[in-house]
Amino acid sequence: MAFPKPEHEIHSRRFSRNLGVGLALLSFVALVFALTVVKVTEGDVGHANDAPGILGSTQPIAPEEPAPAPVAPAVNP
Amino acid sequence: MTDIRSFEAPKEAGFGDFVQLLKPRVMSLVVFTAMVGLLVAPVHLHPVVAFTAILFIALGAGASGALNMWWDADIDAIMRRTKGRPVPAGLVQPGEALAIGLALSGISVVMLALATNILAGALLAFTIFFYAVVYSMWLKRSTPQNIVIGGAAGAFPPMIGWVAATGSISVEAGLMFMLIFMWTPPHFWALALFMNEDYSKAGVPMLTVTHGKRVTRNHVLGYTLALIPFAIALGFTSIGGPVYLAVSVLLNAEFLRGAYRIWKRDEAMAEADKYKVEKSVFRFSLLYLFLHFGALLVEAVLHGNGMGGW
User: Fold this and answer.
1) What is the ipTM of this complex?
2) pTM of the model
3) Do A14 and B115 touch (CB under 8 A)?
């Protein structure tokens, strides 16, 4: 014979805490995902507002050089 | 053999008790001022980035609130206004409050720096340190000027919002900071005038306890006079305009009138009407700050539509 399990206030408090923490963690994961999508689509992998030279700023590794002019193919007489 | 025992169920915190640990009412003011600081800035952030920035500025403020509750649990238990807080009520253990405060501080600073820029993250870290260590641990129990210096912690959020958007500190951000910084003393001293017993019992050296209410009344008027130039000056910057200036002049005139009425009264008059004037000035001071930042927001909307500004 199964006895009904008494529901104490402590159980409902514990449940509310677990539910709250779970939802907070899920929201955090969703926020980090959304932030990542925005940063990647905006091309801002560093910090757009940082001054040049500060850690995290987006600086090109090497200065961009103009592409070489195409070489004209040799024409056979 | 009978075994009759009286059980008292151990107190266990629900999720709401942990939310209370973050001082949600203070957080709502932080959210509003940080949001205004971010929205009035000349650089516009992507909505997701802006939301993240405001969320973690608010969470940082909440973390410093948890650290404050951990440190001040002994005096919170004495004061009527604070004895229902989760730590003195026995719902949250002091160690838990400390752990939550430290963990949320770290998360909020790192996330704000990653979402926006390092300066904003550093300012948030400094704000948490200022509130939890400089104000709560050093000043609150040692000097009657605790409110004046500690007010800086509450003044940083709009500046952090601005820095999150622009990456730098400017005159506008400095004046938004000064507006809250100078507003804090008359706001809190108006409260202390009618909550004096609480601070006295807890041994917190509020100005009302150490220097008496006459001196406090003088200070309320003095600091209100000192606040006005900063509030008005904000109207002449790039984020101000005629709407803000008109609102600010009216609000400052009314605040000054209230401070003057507080200054003119003595204890016999205050006790006779149960601190009616002090209570009304305290309530108005909340509206004062809300409407100043609301007017800045209105100016930002007008600027966006080619109106407002100078």
Assistant:
1) 0.80
2) 0.84
3) no
